[in-house]
Amino acid sequence: MVMHKTQRHRGDYASSRFVRALGTKREMEKIVNDFVINVATANGTGSQSSNLIILHSMFEMGVPVSGKNLFPSNISGLPTWFIIRASDKGYQAPGDGTNIQVLMNKDTWIKDLEALEPGSIVIFNQDVKLPVDRHDCTLLGMPMTKMARKINAKLGKLIANMYYVGALAYLLDIDEDAIARALEAQFSGKEKAIEINSQAILEGREFAEENWEFDCQFTVEAREKDPNSFLIEGNEAIALGSIYGGITMLSWYPITPSSSVAEGIIKWLPKLRVDADGGSTCAVIQAEDELAAAGMVLGAGWAGGRGMTCTSGPGISLMSEFIGLFYFSEVPGVIWDVNRVGPSTGLPTRTQQADLSMLYEASHGDTQHIVLIPGTIDECFEFGWRVFDYAERFQTMVFGFNDLDLGMNRWKTSGFKYPDMPMDRGKVIKTQKEMDSIPNYGRYRDVDGDGVAYRTLPGSGLDPILYRGTGHDEDGIYSEDPQVYNDAMARLKRKINGARNHLPAPVVREEEQKELGVIFYGSMENTIVEIDDLLGESGLSVSTCRVRALPLHSDVEDFVRRHDRTIVLEINRDGQLYGIIRKEFPVDLIHKIHSVAYSDGMPPRARVYTEMILRVLEDN
User: Fold this and answer.
1) Model confidence over 304-339: pLDDT tens digits?
2) I need a labelling partner for 441 at 20 to 30 A (CA). Which of 247, 408, 447, 562 fits?
3) Domain coordinates of the chain in residue numbers?
4) CA 182, CA 198: separation in Å to the nearest integer?
5) What is the pTM of this model?
6) How many CB atoms within 10 Å of residue 185?
7) Domain 235-413 falls in which CATH fold?
8) Which CATH architecture has domain 507-619?
């Protein structure tokens, strides 16, 4: 056993006993860019800045890295964890275990320790004064709070987190310049904060070097970095896409995890959407509740604007009445749902894909909605503007469907592609000449056979401007005639079904052997490569099909037909996409399709889903 040079443990050990570390001074083969760090802290202690500095410093070195913020559903005080994974293979799931555990929170101290595999490295704040009773792990203590208070007594609790940044920088050999760039980005323009935190990081690095006689087996090695790449949250990418998509009215009511979509729009509007006089070209209204927010989007769509709101599952529930009005009166609008764990309040700061069925058939009566489902950070931006085009093209409310993992964590992009096409306003009649060219115009008359009628906009001078939520005939006149209602509902279904192959096609990665196909959607994209590799270790040839929209593109059915067996993989309990497929696909395909659905609030871990897939295949 290798001992610390000078540092003594101040927990339950006797005062004369050294803290021990598993390791040797002999040279060992380093594990490069392949490890998981778990930082256990408390919400409201300033740890997010420290964690992001670690994440960004490795990113600055060109290392493929991902971060998962597991935060509590209160303002401060409850436990929070930040999981950082470095992987040269590009794996972005949280990983199956923890290689380096940082202990800062006394409330989870014991459980965090107990969960570790033998041989794990533990960096802990000695000032917490709790036992670190894991003789089969490497134990590395540092009096972080006491050291921080020497820099600034008032801010010592916050600065203490920077000492584990320095410790990790020393153990993993993170480049000092990369740390400096990450620190500058985190505290941009705040020179005093940069100075204080730089000092803490340096002291943490020096303490580790002087006091820890331990050669860490894990290391960071620089890789070539795309100079144009950067990290950004999915919700902010959606916000930017919405701005470039021509949003003219944002209404919102705060709810985790969607609030940062609205906050991102508000942040970027002064830089991207001002007129010649400096005024904003997009109205922003914080509504009194979710129902009011949806109603404002409805009003914007009726007036010819591009209105949007953002919410999560509970908000969708409250918006249901207006969602039905969007559908039946055929007013365009956009609602982004950033999925959190339900039902009820559930786990409001954890991730899930359990709103899918609700979105597809939201509101009472027979309804069916277009749903766009991004799976990458670039698609968050792209679908941010595409939703408006689809809403106006098909004259209906369109859902954007994201989840907390993709929405509130940071992902790599090399920059977003500006929309290379004019806005699609759909079938809008602007002049009397256009009106006269349409045979037997009626607000709800389908003259082209695609289920989409022509519309006029207020201010055009063309009458009538009709949008009716009660029974209506093709001219928009109130009607309770049974056949008229049946015909209207048939046309609406034809319209939405007709959108299938106009929506984003699935992303298919296909093997020559058609042994197993895996259908998935959304943020599972960030785990599927690792799942594919693990299944490959079992000798399986796996093709994948990532669904990007509802109703399902015809390519999804073709994918199922080409494969011997198909698994539908999703992050919910009930297999909601699997249920949609069973309801809509021909009966002769159903026996080939199986469900693997799992949800515990965590971002998907590859081995969990892989083991479930193998069990289903064994049983079928």
Assistant:
1) 999 999 999 999 999 999 999 999 999 999 999 999
2) 247
3) 2-219, 235-413, 428-497, 507-619
4) 11
5) 0.94
6) 15
7) Rossmann fold (3.40.50)
8) 3-Layer(aba) Sandwich (3.40)
